[in-house]
Design brief:
eight-stranded parallel β-sheet, 8 strands
Length: 320
């Protein structure tokens, strides 16, 4: 029996990759052989907006939130040039304008670029109409709490837009775990993502910027688990008093029911979002998959509705 038989949810995938064709998607550093073999095909799909829209229609996904984190479009060891980021964001705004009811965009921002990065964040939201920011969660030497990233995070909080903190492939960890194949790549990326999450807690950024809304993929869940085991980490959980609650979100990347249940129990169902890492993730956000996995996670209809798309609509300030 279908536990949600009377619903017709709005489904929004907040973790969908799209790159300007002039800036092709690059494979992660020291990528696993299986992913490297797929990459040329993935890069073409990441630059194919028409194909993405057609696939979303077939899969019953109402909204895709498009993003190209700096590490996806910038060669390893190089910094994203401000002029390149402007062109990427200009193109993304043009792409969104072709189907604003079906796609929204997160501006590509080099969060560690200080005031210059913050200015591009403001331009992208206020002038281009993009709905939020995507940043690398770290560099080889800095985590997201770095003073260099503070202007961008402050701008996001003041603009009232979400920040997707995307994993990177830290060189030393990725090489150390290379023997694990794709699991090693994911472990390295998840570890640095978890560290970035913990840095926001440890260095007081979440308390300093109560208006900051930051999304981490499920890869970074270990950081949430570690934080929740401490008294100071309570501010990220649903137990925190409303005035002190920090707005940390997880997306469902991987679509594991137990992980989704853990996230909703800890953060609250209003702080978990559907996200697939399209087209890199091995499990796409089809309507059937979303409905099935949320039922398997044991969410009631109201909570499932929030995770499926209600939370995304609120974060992106979309009309009901």
């Amino acid at each position: 029996m279908d536990p949600y038989r009377d619903r017709r949810w709005y489904i929004a995938d907040v973790h969908t990759h799209y790159a300007c064709p002039d800036y092709p998607a690059l494979a992660p550093r020291n990528t696993a052989r299986a992913l490297a073999h797929r990459w040329s095909s993935l890069a073409r799909r990441i630059a194919d907006l028409d194909g993405l829209l057609a696939e979303s229609g077939r899969h019953g996904v109402d909204l895709r939130v498009l993003s190209a984190p700096p590490a996806l479009v910038t060669a390893y060891g190089e910094r994203s040039a401000p002029a390149d980021l402007r062109r990427i964001n200009d193109h993304l705004a043009e792409a969104v304008s072709t189907a604003p009811d079906r796609i929204r965009g997160l501006a590509t921002i080099d969060a560690f670029g200080g005031d210059t990065a913050a200015a591009e964040a403001v331009r992208s939201v206020r002038e281009l109409g993009l709905s939020g920011l995507v940043v690398d969660c770290a560099t080889e030497g800095e985590l997201l709490s770095s003073p260099a990233a503070r202007p961008t995070l402050t701008a996001a909080a003041e603009l009232g837009v979400p920040v997707l903190a995307h994993p990177i492939s830290p060189d030393s960890m990725t090489r150390a775990f290379a023997g694990l194949g794709r699991f090693g790549t994911s472990l390295a990326r998840g570890t640095i993502n978890a560290a970035a999450l913990l840095s926001l807690l440890h260095d007081g950024v979440l308390e300093e910027l109560p208006g900051l809304h930051v999304i981490f993929p499920m890869l970074g869940m270990a950081g949430l688990s570690l934080a929740a085991a401490t008294d100071e980490g309570e501010i990220m959980t649903a137990r925190a008093p409303a005035p002190r609650r920090a707005h940390v979100y997880l997306d469902t990347m991987g679509f594991a029911p137990a992980a989704i249940r853990f996230a909703t129990d800890l953060l609250g169902p209003d702080h978990v979002l559907v996200g697939s890492d399209w087209p890199i993730g091995l499990r796409d956000a089809t309507r059937e998959r979303v409905e099935t996995v949320l039922a398997q996670a044991g969410l009631d209809e109201n909570d499932a509705h929030l995770v499926a798309g209600g939370n995304a609509r609120r974060l992106l300030a979309l009309r009901p």
